TrEMBL record:
GO terms for cellular component: plasma membrane. GO terms for biological process: aerobic respiration. This is NADH-quinone oxidoreductase subunit I. The keyword Translocase applies. It is found in: Cell membrane. It comes from the Bacteria. Pfam families: Fer4_7. The gene is nuoI. NDH-1 is composed of 14 different subunits. Subunits NuoA, H, J, K, L, M, N constitute the membrane sector of the complex. It comes from Chitinophaga agrisoli. Coiled coil: none annotated. Binds 2 [4Fe-4S] clusters per subunit. It is a peripheral membrane protein. The keyword Iron-sulfur applies.
Length: 169
């Protein structure tokens, strides 16, 4: 077996010259670095006015989709909750009432659907696991809140508006 050898650089212990003791070359080197950075493009973005370009694979806030007829796509299968590694999705399934079954495609629906954005790691596994394409990650940031409950998005917050209903502005 070969012994490990380290490369040791010898330390220069000679006394400093008069110019080196004045530290003028070192100060000038530092000033040159500073002046180079003054003329470079700034990394700061004035956020609300300017938007920073994002990667095409950026994953932001979640939304629950509707189909062409305005019905909820989510059938409460629970695959998104199972696929979530952070366990950020909570779902409760319920059966449709006898009169509603012919209005909707599926017998089950999500009575309660919540995503805890403080736990979510925006991995996109919920989007990949959904067989009905009901959940998507958009290109929108999660807004800031002052309390924890503001980060827990329920079904009304996640569901996109029904295109058939009249929008009041």
């Amino acid at each position: 077996m070969q012994a490990l050898t380290t490369r040791v650089k010898p330390v220069d212990r000679r006394p400093l010259t008069f110019v080196e003791r004045l530290y003028i070359p070192s100060i000038l080197k530092g000033m040159m670095i500073t002046f180079k950075h003054i003329f470079k493009k700034k990394a700061t973005v004035n956020y609300p006015e300017e938007k920073r370009p994002f990667s095409p694979v950026f994953r932001g806030l979640h939304i629950l989709n509707r189909d062409e007829e305005g019905r909820e796509r989510c059938t409460a299968c629970g695959l998104c909750a199972v696929a979530c590694p952070a366990e950020a999705i909570t779902m409760e399934a319920a059966e449709r009432k006898p009169g509603e079954e012919n209005l909707y495609r599926e017998e089950k629906y999500a009575a309660r659907y919540e995503i805890n954005m403080l736990r979510c790691i925006f991995c996109g596994f919920c989007e990949e696991a959904c067989p009905k394409d009901a959940i998507y990650l958009t290109e929108t940031f999660a807004p800031a809140h002052y309390e924890r409950k503001g980060f827990i998005y329920g079904k009304p917050d996640l569901l996109i508006p029904d295109p058939k209903e009249k929008q009041t502005v």
